[in-house]
Write a structure and sequence with these properties.
With 194 residues, the chain is α/β, with parallel strands linked by helices. 40% of the residues lie in helices and 19% in strands.
């Protein structure tokens, strides 16, 4: 009888601990729109070199300390639209878009709906530039970045492969051209003694 009571106490403690301690890097909101609240709270803190990923349902849960994964329970189209609109409204960041190089080669017969997705994402991204890298290369980029910079992953209910949208944030008020001119001027300047 005493052993049975002891086991029940251990099980109760384990269950209580599981409910208090979330899986590393994952947060699941109690409300359906919890991810939107989280995005709105975190976006002002994110900046140059941070990433926001909108990923399909099979995207792996990465364990690097800088990565936070949120299950949205929403469609990839909805999450992508909301994230792009929030970035567009921000005063400080703009997205550099990366997608899987595999996406243009995924056949409709193996992934029903992929053609419609490809057409829709082009419209959603407004015809802006998209950088295509192999999926493994994008995973590696995210892993390397998360050692020093925050990565927010918004997981969707999308079930078409290679559809994840990787948004590397860059400074909205400082262009790539301005940065190139600055670096060129620095190279031309005489070196001063310190």
């Amino acid at each position: 009888m005493r052993n049975r009571f002891g086991r029940m106490v251990v099980v109760a403690i384990a269950l209580a601990a599981m409910s208090v301690w979330p899986v590393h890097g994952q947060q699941v909101g109690d409300e359906a729109d919890g991810w939107r609240t989280q995005l709105n709270q975190e976006l002002p803190l994110l900046g140059h070199r941070n990433w926001i990923l909108i990923v399909d349902s099979a995207y792996p849960l990465q364990s690097s300390p800088g990565i936070e994964t949120i299950e949205t329970g929403a469609s990839e189209d909805e999450v992508t639209r909301i994230v792009l609109a929030a970035i567009d409204r921000s005063i400080h960041v703009r997205p550099v878009v990366y997608m899987d190089a595999e996406l243009p080669f995924v056949p409709e017969k193996d992934a029903p709906g992929v053609s419609t997705y490809r057409d829709g994402i082009k419209v959603m991204l407004g015809g802006g530039p998209v950088h295509y890298l192999l999926h493994e290369q994008l995973l590696q980029k995210v892993h390397q970045t998360s050692g020093d910079f925050r990565v927010l992953i918004l997981k969707t209910n999308q079930t078409i492969p290679y559809t994840s949208v990787f948004l590397q944030l860059n400074c909205k008020y400082w262009s790539d051209d301005a940065e190139a001119r600055l670096r060129a001027a620095m190279k031309q300047a005489p070196h001063s003694a310190h």
